[in-house]
Amino acid sequence: MLVPRAPTHFALAGSLLLGAFIAGCHGPDDSACTAAWEAPLDDADADDQDLGCAILSVAADGPGDAYFAGGSLGVEPAKGCALHFDGEQWTELDLDVPETYWWVAMTPSGAAWLVGEDGLAVRWGGGVGTRFETGVDATLFGVWAAADDDVWAVGGSDGGGDSDVLLHFDGAAWTQVAPPEVRGTYYFKVWGAAADDVWVVGAEGLILHYDGQAWSLHTEWTDEYGTAPRLFTVHGRAADDVWAVGESTTVLHFDGASWTEWEDPTGATVFGGGLTGVHVAPSGSVCVVGDGGVRFTIPTEGAHVETLPGATDPDLHATWCDDDGEEFAVGGNYLESQPAARDGAILHYGCPLSREGLP
Length: 359
What we know:
Elements: E1 9-10, E2 36-38, E3 54-60, E4 66-71, E5 80-85, E6 90-92, E7 101-106, E8 112-116, E9 120-125, E10 128-131, E11 139-147, E12 150-156, E13 165-169, E14 174-177, E15 187-194, E16 197-202, E17 206-210, E18 215-220, E19 231-238, E20 241-246, E21 250-254, E22 259-261, E23 275-280, E24 286-290, E25 295-298, E26 305-307, E27 315-321, E28 327-332, E29 344-350
Antiparallel strand pairs: 1-10, 2-29, 3-4, 4-5, 5-6, 7-8, 8-9, 9-10, 11-12, 12-13, 13-14, 15-16, 16-17, 17-18, 19-20, 20-21, 21-22, 23-24, 24-25, 25-26, 27-28, 28-29
């Protein structure tokens, strides 16, 4: 078992200067508002409003309790960025780390885990951040929590670093768990329907499953041409309703028995680039985002519906949506290798968010 590094505590910073919002009502409870897309990080009146970070992940327990995470991705000054919106105001979590956060997930108790570069793992709860030693140097691309003492993180690296990374947190420390087989590859995301029903997706079309006792290689997905696409994100709402997305417009569905490739029932063509984020609402509606600002919904019945939420169509990396029509989609210029500056995007659909606490 790994011995955790002495926890490092960080103070909660004040409100983060974000941007102006679409005019109209002042919050999701105002019945007079008209739902629309807005971009909280954009402010035409500000000369320097950006975080210097791409936003790579969002986790929420509703539009009034949402976490966002990302970072500078190799652009100086190096930093990780983490934000919280509580329904009234935005705050930046001043965790003072140079590493980029790649994913954030909430625990059932409302705490948040943020993971990222160089084995970074931080738990945020009660206004305090605690960094834990993970024992790996790989980038951790995904995290999911069944409980405060039952958390999984996954990742990988090349060039001699740790690969095929499966980590488990038992409430005290992170432990590296042996994968079904070592391939020198990446695991990108993890999600579970229950503590004994957990899925991991990764490079080479890999889909792993955990049954509460052991991990196994469930599927090596290949398309009709024999290509194994990288699978970037997995999410679901039940053991028989799990979705995964990846490059080359790959959309997969697990019905409790097998994985199959989703096709629009009308035969309509789906966006032809990389798909990076998927989230399943409680009703079963599926939200998907990807390169070039693509965003579409797969309803429980009928054809998919495409929208491009941002005027500049930033590359989107992750999404969250609910049954009330609220949605967040996040990204930025994270695909650019060495931009002059790293820009982030948080797009929101619904009634304009509160500006309480913002100048």
